[in-house]
Amino acid sequence: MNGEPDDYLRAVEAALFVAEAPLTPAELRLHVGDAGDLAAVLRQLTDEYAGRGINLVERGGRWHFQTAADLAHILRREKDEARKLSRAAMETLAIIAYHEPVSRAEIEAIRGVQVAKGTLDVLMEAGWVRPAGRREVPGRPLIYATTVDFLSHFGLSSRRDLPGIDDLRAAGLLDPVDLALEGLGGQSVLENDDDVA
After folding, report:
1. What is the per-residue pLDDT across 8-26, written as a single tens digit (0 to 9) for each?
2. Partners of 144 in the β-ladder
3. What is the value of pTM for the model shown?
4. What is the architecture, at CATH level 2, of domain 87-183?
5. For domain 3-74, is the CATH number 1.20.120.1080?
6. Which residues contact residue 129 at a Cβ distance below 8 angstroms, ignoring those fewer than 6 apart?
7. At what angle do helices 3-18 and 38-49 cross, to 10 degrees?
8. Which residues is 56 bridged to in the sheet?
C-alpha cells in the first residue's frame, strides 16, 4: 500500500476521533479533502474496529466512534437516572417515528386522544423529536420528526430498522386489544353500529 491511501485513512480516522459530534461524509470531506475514496475508507475503518473496544458506526448518515456495546457498562462512572416515559409519550414517539413528519392533529387522530403539550416537550428535551417545519395546508401546523439522537439511542442506522408488526408480535409487545382487533380482520367495532339501529 503506498503512502497516499494510508495517509487519507489516517486523516479520516483522526477527524472522526476528535469530532465533538457525529459527522456526515460531506462534513468529513471538509476536514480531509477528496484525496481518496471516502466510502471505501469508512468501510475499511468499520472492519478494522469491529470487535475492538470502540467501534466505528453510522447512525442516520453520520459517522462516529462509540464504545463497544458489550463494554459500555465498565466505563460508566455514575448510574444514569432512568427517565421513564409515560404511555402517552411512548405512543407519541412511536407515531412520530413511524409516520414522520407528522403534525399534532395527525398524532391525535392516530392516538384517538388529545396530545398534551408537555408530552412533545419531554420528547424534544430528550433530544429524540424535533420540529421539522410546517405543513403547507391552511393554518400551517408545525410538523415533528425524529432526530439522529433518537436513532443513536435506540441503536438504529435509519428508520427502516424500526421493528415491523411481525417483529412486535413475536416479541409479545402488542397490546391484547390490538391482537383481538386484528383477529376481527381489522374490522372496526363501529362497523356493526348499523345492525343496532
Report:
1. 899 999 999 998 889 999 9
2. 102, 131
3. 0.52
4. Orthogonal Bundle (1.10)
5. no
6. 93, 96, 120, 123, 144, 145, 146, 147, 150
7. 70
8. 65
